[in-house]
Amino acid sequence: MGPDVPLLNEYKQEFFWKRFPQTVLGGPRFKLGYCAPPYVYVNQVVLFLTPWLLGGIGTLLCQLQLLEELHAAMLSGLLMLGAAVGVQALALYAARRNAMVERLGVPNILADEEEVEFTHCVGPETVRFIAPGKRFGLNVLLHTVLAGALCGLGTWYVLLGRLTALYGSVGVALVVFVLSWVTLCTAEYSLIVNTATETATFQAQDTYEITPLTRPLYILAFIAVDLADRFTGPVPELQLTSQVLHVVFLVLPLLWALGMLSPLDALLLWGMEQALVFGLGGSPMSSNLRLLGMLAMSVCVTVCTFFIPSTLGVVLFSMAMGFLLSLDLSQFGTYCGGGSRGACGDSGWHRGASPAPPSLFGWRLGCSELLLYLGLLLGAMTEAGLLHHFLSPSQTQNLARVSQDAVSYLLITLFIVCWALREIQGAYVFGGVFLNPLYPRGMANVRVFKQRSRGLHMAGAIRRVLLNLVSPFAMVAFLALDGSVQQLHTASLSVGFTRAFRVVWQSSEDALLQMVVVVSVRLAAGDTRLPGWDSLGTGVQLLLVGLLSDRLLQFLSKLKFALAVLVTSWTEKKQRRQSAGTLLVLNASLCPLLLSVVVLSAMLSAPLLPLFTLPIFLVGFPRPQRSWPGPVGTACPCPDSIYYQQMSGSLACALRSAFARGSLGPLTPGSHFLGRFQDRVVWIMILERGYGYCTVNIKGLELQETSCHTVEARRVDEVFEGAFERPERLGLNQGINLHWGNALTPCAALPVRVYSDARNVLSGIIDSHDNLRKLQDDFLKALVWLLLRNCVQRLKAFPWDTEEGTGGGGTKSQSSQLGQSTVTQPAEFRRASSSLTSFGDWSDEDDLFGPQPARRTVALVSTEAQLGDTVLQTGPSLPGSVEMDSLFENMALSALQPLQPLGLGLGLPAVDKGRNPEVPPTKSSGTLAHENFSCPHSELFSLPPGWRTAPLLPFRLQQLRPLFPEEWFRFTLGRLALAVQDEASEDVAKSLKEDGGLKDLHAQVALSCLISLGAESAFTSPSYVYRVYSGDVPWTEGLKWLSENKELYQLALKAFRYSFKLLFDQASLGPMESLDELFSTLEEYERDWYIGLVAEKGWQDSVLQEKPFLFSLGHDLTMGTYTGRVLSLQEQLVQVGHLNGEGVRGQWANLSWELLYATNDDEERYSIQAHPIMLRNLTVQAADPPLGYPIYSSVPLHLPCF
C-alpha cells in the first residue's frame, strides 16, 4: 500500500464526525446523518441547559441575598434531583413501550440501521433516542442521586461571589461562571441523559456503566479542593491551587475530548501502581489482584512503621518487611499450601499453555531456597541492628559520619563496577551507540559461541554476586547509619525510609543508582548545608531521586520516539504522505509546544500518542505499565502456536541466565524485548521485578507472514546482522551502530532448544520412476518390520507364558508408544503441559521397545470384550503414532468413511485359540492356520485372525509372492526374536526363520495390504503417492477390509510413510548398504521421528513433547510442486534485542484510540502498514486481543535471577 492510504475510509470519516461532537458536548447528538424533526434538537438543547437553568435559580437567589450560599446550592441540587427522576421515569416508560412495539411491528429492512422514525416530540421513540436509559436499576438510583449532588455542589463551586473573591474582578468571574457551567452541563448530560463515547477508552466494553461516572467524579475532585480552601484557614498554597483549578475547570471538556484524562478503572490502577512503585518501593504487578494485595500489605507496613516508638525497632521492622515483600509471595502461598514442588500459582507455570519449571535452584520454593532467604534476612537484620545500635549518630556522631562516608565510597565503587560489568555483557555499549569489541560475533555454532563467551559469563557471575549480595548489605549499612532515622516519627520520613529499605531488595540496581546520586550530592556539598534538601531526610531524598530518574528516562525515550516519527515521516519514502512537509513545518515552528507535550506525558507517566502514527502528538491518558486491562496470557491460537509453546520453556531458561548476567540491560517492569529465529518472532515483556526473580510474558507472532510483516522482519534481520554477524576486529568507523535510530537495539544471542525448520522441493525425487519402483519394495520391508515389531510389543504387554492368550486379534498396538525424545533438557520441561494433551506420566526408561504396561487380568480382558470399542478410547496417543482425526480435516474422503483415529476401539481382546477350542478360526480364501507352524515359538509372532481374511483371490497373492522380502523377513525375525525373551537362544531364532508357515502368514498379510493400497503394480505417479501418504487412498478391492481392521490400517499407513522417508533419505544420502543399516534406520524412525502430516494432532503432540525430528510431505497447489518439511530439535542461537518501551506504549495507545473510539478496523489502514524503523506492524500484532493478534501468549512466568 502507498503512503497516502486514507487514515479513515469514507464511512468511518462520516461516523467519526458524528461521534466527536457528541463526545465534546457530553452526549447530545446534533449530527445524525439524516433528516430529523426540529423538536429532536430542541429537546436535547433543553435537557443540556437544564442544569444551568436550575443552578441559575439558586445563583440568582443567592445574589439577591434571599438565600445563603449553602441553601442556594441545596435548592439547585433538589431541583436537579427532581429533573433527573423525571428523565429516568420517561426513559423507563419509553423502554417498555418500545419493547411492545418491537414485538408487534415489522422492521423496515430498507431503512438505515441508525435511522429512527419520529412521530411525536415526547413519543417513546423520541425519548428512547434522546435518553436511552440505564441497564441496571442500581445505576438508575446512583446516577440520579449523583446528578442532584453534582448540580448542588457545582452551583456552590461557581457562585459569582466565590469567583469574585478568588480573582478580584467581576468581569473575570462572569467569564469563568459561564464557561464553568458548560463543563457542568456536559457532565450532567453524560450522567443522566445519554452517555458520550469517551476518547479515553480502556475497556473494550463498559459492562457496568462506569463511563457515565467519569466526568462527574473529576468535577467532584475539583470541588473537593475548593471546599478544603473554604473550610481551612488562609493557606496561600491552597488558595493558589484553587485559582489554578478553576481555570483548568474551564478546559475540562477539551481534555476529555482529547482523551488526556483517564477513565476511572485505568486511573485507579495507574494510581495504585504509581503509589506502590514510587511511594512504597514496590514493583508493578503482573495482575490487578496482585497489585491490590501488594499495595494493601505495603500500606500496612508503612502505617506500622509510623507507630513503632523505637528507632531500632523501626530499622529492623522496615528492613525485614522490605526483604519479605520484595520476594515472590505467590511461591510462599503455594509452599504453605503443601505444594513446595507443585505448581507455582500465579507465577505462571502449569496453566495449560506453559511448560513446567525445571527442578533447579530458584525455580520453585523449596528447602534450599528457604534456607537462603532465611540466611539473608538474618544477616541483614543483624547488620542493621548492630550498626544502628553502636554507630548511630545518637551514640557517636563523628564515628557514624566517618563510617557512612566510607560506605558511600563503597557504594560509588560498586555502582561503577556493576555498571561496567553489565555494559560489556551486551552486543552494544553506551546506550546502543558503539559495538562491544568483547562480544563474540560471526559464529553460528552454539558450542563455539559458548566457549568464546566464557569470559563474559565469568564477569556476569561477578556482577551477580556484587549486585545481589554485596550491594544490598552495603545499602542497608548506609541507611542504618543515617542520622535522619532518628526523626522517623513524621509521616514523610516514615514513608521515605520504609520505601528505602524496600527498594534495596526490590530493585537493587535502581536503589544503587539512587543512593549514588544522593551520596554524590552530599559529598559535593561537603560541610555546606543545603537547607531545602537536607531537611527532607535521606528517605525522601531517595524517593525524589527515584521519581526524577524514572521521569527523566521516560522523557529521553519519548523524545527519541517522537524524533523517529518526525524524521521517518520524511526520510522513509513509503511513509512520506502529502502532508508530511506541512506537519514537519508545524512541529518545527511549535517546537516548544512539542517539548511541552513530551514533558507532560513523561511527568504523568502517560504514553506519548502519535495520532494515526503521524507526527501529531497528544498526551495519552495515564494507564498501568501493562497497557491492557485484561489478564496476561490471552492470544489468538492457531496450529503454529505449538512452536512458540515448545520453545517458551527453553527460552525462559535462557532469559533467566541473560537477566542474571545483565546481557539484556537493566530489568525494568514495562520493558519490551524482541527475539528472532528463522521465521519466528518472539515478543517478551517484563511484568514484575523483585529480589531474585523476574516475571515475564512471552508472546509469539504469526508465522504466515504478510507483506508488511515481511518488510519489518527483514529489517529486524538486518539490525541483528549488523550486531552479530560483523567481523570481530572493527575500525572506529565500523564500530558504530548504524541502526541506532531504530526501535530495536540488539542485546544478546541466547542458546535455546528450538525446532529448526527446513523445507525442500521434491522435484526429481518424488517424480522419479526409479524411486517409485523402489518405493514398493521399501513399503513391504517397512510393513514386515512393523508387523513383527507389533507382535513383540503385544508380547511385552501380555507375556506369552502367562494365562492370557498370545496370538489374539484386536490387541492395541504399542508400536506407537516407542521412543522418547533424546534431549538433555530437564525432565520437567519435556513433560510440557499442553492445551492439547499431557504426557506427564510417560517414560520409556531407555527400553528399545517402549514401556511395559501393567498386566491385564482375565477379568479386565473380559470386561473389555463386553464394552467393545469404547474401552480403549481413553488416554492420549504418543508420538510416532498416526492420528487420523486431524488427517482428513481439509479433505473430502468419502471412500474412507469407516476410518477411525488410532487409539480408538480395535475389536475384541486376544483369545488363544489353542486354549479355547470353542472359538474356531475364521476360514476364508488364503487363510493359514496355526497348525502349519513348524516351530512351537512361532505362535508368538502370529497375527490376528481378522488380518488374514482379505477378500482377495489366492492367485493374486501367489502372483505377487516374489515381491515379498523373505531375506529381510528372516533377518528382522532373528533380531526381534531376541527381544521377546532375553534367554532366547540362537537355535530358537533359527527355528523361527525356517518356519514356512509363519513366513507365509506374514507374506499373506503384507501382500494383502499392498493390494488394498493399490500398489500391486508399483506406485505410478507423485499424486498417487501423496494421496496414500495423506490417508486419502483411492478405492480398491480390499480397501474396505483394510479400513475395518483399524490397527492394521494404521500400521500399513505408517509403513508407507516410513517407506517414503526411506526414499527421501536414499535420494539425498545414498542407498542403504546393508540390512542392518535398514533395521537401524527404521528403529531410529520409530524412536526419534514423527513422520506424518502437519495438520495431524500427532504432529502437535510430538512438537510439544519435543520429538527430535519431524517429517511431513506437502503439496504446493500454486507452484504445482511437492515439498518435504523436516523439523529438527537442536540448540540454536536466538537473537534478542531491546525495544523502545515508550514507542511501544505510544503505538499501543494510538491502537486503542483508533479501534475503540474511531472504530477504524480497516485491515489496510495507514497505522498498520509496515514501518521498518518503528516496527509498527509487529507492534500492533503484539498487542493483547481483541486489538492485537498474537498467536501465542504465555501466562506470567516466574524466572529466578540469582
Automatic annotation (TrEMBL):
This is Pecanex-like protein. Residues 812-822 have a biased composition (Low complexity). Keywords: Membrane, Transmembrane, Transmembrane helix. It is found in: Membrane. InterPro entries: Pecanex, Pecanex_C. Signal peptide: none annotated. It is a multi-pass membrane protein. It comes from the Eukaryota. Residues 802-827 are annotated as: Disordered. Belongs to the pecanex family. The chain crosses the membrane at residues 39-61, 73-95, 136-159, 165-184, 247-271, 291-317, 370-391, 583-604. Pfam families: Pecanex_C (PF05041). PANTHER family: PECANEX, PECANEX-LIKE PROTEIN 4. Residues 1026-1194 form the Pecanex C-terminal domain.
